Amino acid sequence: MAIFLMDEHQHCVFMNEAAEELTGYRLQEAMGRPLHDVVHHQHPDGRPYPIEDCPIDRAFPERGRMRGEEVFVHKDGHFYPVAFTASPIAGDDGQPVGTIIEVRDLTEDKAREAALRESEGRFRNMADHAPVMMWVTDPTGCCTYLNRQWYEFTGQTAAEAEGYGWLEATHPEDRELAERAFTHANSGRTSFRIEYRLRHASGAYRWAIDAASPRFGDDGEFLGYVGSVIDIDERREAEEKLALNEEQLRLALEVAEIGQWDVDHASGRMFWPPRVKAMFGISPDVPVTLDDFLDGVHPEDRERTRAAYEAASDPDLRALYDVEYRTVGKEDGIIRWVAAKGRGLFNAQGTCFRVIGTAIDVTERKASEIRLRELNERLEFEVTERTAERNRVWEMSGDLLAILGFDGRPKVINPAWEITLGRDMDTLLNLSFREQIHPDDHKAGEDALRRLLRGEAVERFEHRLAHADGSWRWISWTFVPEGDVFYAVGRDVTPEKEAAEELENAQEALRQSQKMEAMGQLTGGVAHDFNNLLTPIVGSLDLLQRKGLGGEREQRLIEGALQSADRARTLVQRLLAFARRQPLQPAAVDVVKLVDGMADLLASTTGPQVRVVVEVADDLPPAKADPNQLEMALLNLGVNARDAMPQGGTLRITATRESVRSPRGALKRGHDVRLSVADTGVGMDEPTLARAIEPFFSTKGIGKGTGLGLSMAHGLAAQLGGALTIHSREGVGTNVELWLPISTMVPDTEKASDARVFTSDARGLALLVDDEEVVRASTADMLVEFGYEVQEADSGEAALALIAQGIRPDLLVTDHLMPGMNGVELASTLRERFPELPVLVYPGMQRSRGSLPACRALQSRSEAPNWRSASQHLWRTERCIPKRHSGRALIENL
């Protein structure tokens, strides 16, 4: 034992020889130094060792006795473990004066412990990886170790298995036997081997063999047992199955009526049980010989059976006796089929002394085979017929049938491919599926192929295949994978696709028509209300201008207001034309003459940078149209064309006769005059073209267009029973076509005769009927100015009530469109009572400055008959009053 004596400052004052040998330091070297400096100034890895972490240095005298283990550093630098005891030393006064430290080298103890741990580790590693369950007990019989296989097999935890916990995993019926066998062996310290059932982690019990041997120490001390447990449940099950199989074999032979036979080849005696005798029609108690056997075989099978028996008993051949033959019953004469097998037994000299085997009555089986053969022949015939039918279906089917590899190349195709795709069979077989599919369908085809590779069937897969003429055919496929190929059935659905596309186009056209109809209704309503507001404004401004109120500046302002109102009137006219509510005067129009007359005006309107080309057929029939509105539409289309050619270009106007055989969009079946206005301008893209005829839609920018030019032209054509079509491409130009029905009337080439302008003052009572108060008020002012006395009524019914009260009008001025009785009905009623009554009917949607000169013309009644005829013509035809016509022009138009 190494001893160190420290003073009250923990400095070394003494160390014995054992301490010197232990540390490598002499006493003189350690005197006056802390023990920490001498023996443990660093960790084994070289890190500094703080004093406060050293258990020895912490054992100051005032702390009492301390024990522990420490690592010392020898003077030569090696480390070694030690066990120490540090005890304080008290002086006479009881105060600590130093510490005595006892140290023992633990190097050998630690080496033994490491070796033991290593040995235990090897054992545990070996045991945990052993293919059997292993266990270790202490001398009392308690389990101290169970390997991993035990826990995996039983599902127990370490807490459940320790001690005698292994008994808890034993079957309740085997627990007492197993415990008694273990206790008996443990008391005698002898080996043992027992079989019992252990509970598996699954909950089932399995048979196991538990074998163990006692273990002893070097001094003969009994240390406990080391044992192993082997799962033998499968072996037990196999043994039970073997016993069961043997019993089943015995029963099978009995139940299957298999007979055994044994022939003493040397003497010819035979052992035949009753079952074999019955196969030959022999009673059970009748003895038989080998000759009886051969005589009982059917004559046709006898020689073949004899040859098989001789081959089995021949020492050189030793063949297997395996033959089927017929027997003829010796006592009952019944023919039976027997299947026999056997082998010869030979002695050391090679002589056959016995032939043994089995025999089975297979009469029923043979009958079944005959029936089966007949059925097979019939099935083969039916298969042949069905194969021929399948081949006919293959050849005649209109569907595309094929067998293809997963590389996409067809292996076999039917003739429908040639008919559907217009290519010969060799060409189609040399093209892969990908080479025939439309490029846009490649990805979908690859997705379908991946599904087939996963073993999935693909149904209703559609893509396009190339036709020989360059077109594409839509095919609907069903693919079914089978091994390294897949079967394909395809149907040409191109007609269905085209029909669906036509239906979709028709539905889109219907939606567009409904949209335009709704917009037309809205536009017409707005125009009607706007016109009602505009009429009193125009009338009032006209009165102010005629009276010459104000100075030159005021007259200029009134003229500017009238010009703006005139522009508003033009806007209303276009809105009404788009809404198809513009009152028209359809007539037979000579389109050639109209276009020629408009050419100079269009040329001056479009400017010098635009070349105007007119191409019209000489034999063009008259068209049904309103010439004034048609001229306005043609002028609007020319202005649009000019605006589309800012750098100049060509404006081409053509007129041809066309026949529409089948309806196309807005075009109806019939004979038309096609008036085309084409330019070489910027053109329109698809979105712009789709909205071109919408009202107020314009590409010219704010303040540069109303967006109603094309809308008016569309409404005009539709109202006349024709159509408007537009063709345009960006950078190429636009072609607008007006399709007008051919008129059955002859164009009127006579000019209207001039009528005189009456300037004499009008006298009398004017009955004014209008449901709009503001319109009625302005019109009344005009009539008063012309010298009439005015009686107002807000409806036809109110006017008739005034007549009933006794008034007699000299002039009737009435709105056409009114709630209840309209203007024409009112005029007809009054003309029945007053045949000479002058009448002026103005349509409510077209009131404008024309009303004023019309009223001026009515100032004179000296030519009443002329006015009667004029007014009669007016209300009968419900003709609109043009906006800027004078009274003379009014009469000309009437």
Automatic annotation (TrEMBL):
The domain of life is Bacteria
Q: Which residues form a coiled coil?
A: 365-392
Pfam short name (any one): PAS
Which Enzyme Commission number(s) are on file for it?
Answer: 2.7.13.3
Every copy of the PAS domain together lies at 1-45, 119-189, 245-316, 386-456
For this protein, the record's SUPFAM superfamilies field holds:
ATPase domain of HSP90 chaperone/DNA topoisomerase II/histidine kinase, CheY-like, Homodimeric domain of signal transducing histidine kinase, PYP-like sensor domain (PAS domain)
- Catalytic activity line of the entry: ATP + protein L-histidine = ADP + protein N-phospho-L-histidine
Mention one GO biological process in which this protein takes part, according to its record. regulation of DNA-templated transcription
Phosphoprotein listed as a keyword: yes
Which InterPro entries would you find in this protein's record? CheY-like_superfamily, HATPase_C_sf, HATPase_dom, His_kinase_dom, HisK_dim/P_dom, HisK_dim/P_sf, PAC, PAS
Does the entry feature the keyword Lipoprotein, yes or no? no
Q: Where is the Histidine kinase domain?
A: 525-744
Question: What are the residue boundaries of the Response regulatory domain, all occurrences included?
Answer: 765-876
Query: Annotated Gene Ontology MF terms?
Result: phosphorelay sensor kinase activity
> Which NCBIfam families would you find in this protein's record?
sensory_box
From the Swiss-Prot or TrEMBL record, give the protein name.
Answer: histidine kinase
